[in-house]
Amino acid sequence: KYSDCQQFIQCTFPDFAEAMRESIYFYLDKIYKGSINRRHMFMVAMLITHKKPDELTDQHVINLCNKYRSK
Fold first, then answer.
1. Quick one: DSSP state of residue 54?
2. 54-71: string of b/e by CB count within 10 Å (b at 16+)?
3. Segment 9-24 mean pLDDT
4. Residue 22 pLDDT exceeds 80
5. What percent of the chain has pLDDT over 90?
6. How far is CA 28 from CA 9, 19, 40, 62, in A?
7. Are 53 and 42 in contact (CB under 8 A)?
């Protein structure tokens, strides 16, 4: 979240939005290409849902990532 980010670095909302978008695309590309790395999968889930790791179940993360995998 933007407010959480402000605690660590001062940035404008457009800069934050661009960084979020680029991060999501970066990790989605890894998932699309078949990565089963747990860290990649949780990063995608956290970035898309704006939830913390302890708020996500393994099954939710797997289901979310399966939607973005190459078929």
1. G
2. eebeeeebeebbeeeeee
3. 93
4. yes
5. 73
6. 25, 14, 8, 13
7. yes
Q: Find the domain containing 46 and state its range.
A: 2-68
- What is the token pair recorded at 48? 């898309």
Burial 12-43 (b: 16+ CB within 10 A, else e): eeeebeeebeeeeeebbebbeeebeeeebbbb
pLDDT at 46 over 80: yes
Which residues does 13 contact at the CB level (< 8 Å), separation at least 6? 2
What would the two tokens of residue 71 be?
A: 């078929």
How many domains does the chain contain in total?
A: 1
Instruction: Provide the mean pLDDT of the chain.
Output: 92
